[in-house]
Write a structure and sequence with these properties.
Rubrerythrin, domain 2, elongated, 3 strands, single chain, alpha+beta
Amino acid sequence: METPNVPEPDSQASTTESTSDVTEPLDRYECSPCGYVYEPLKGDSVGGILARTPFKDLPVTWRCPVCGARKNVFANIGPAGNDAGFKANYGYGFGVNTMTSSQKSLLIFGGLALAGIVMLSFYGLN
């Protein structure tokens, strides 16, 4: 006698709901007075905060480990590796708006170094 083919309960739906918080990127927060960046993936060893602790879950008594500022002076700067700048401006320019901040810094300071080398090379034209 064959058993009817009854579909099993959708176990993926409950798994998706429980892992949505885990796979969601953890936003970094920057201290306005001193520039310290709280990175949830690293946590805060000075304050005893474990890695992967979101900023919103930090205790009210937590302070900036550099300057001692409270949580309310921190600004959300998004997850690590995001493009620097406003998303509305990504379509403008020569493709520079889609670069990360470290790529922009490399481009700027690399261009300055190249310009300095070109200027110094003029001394060899005597």
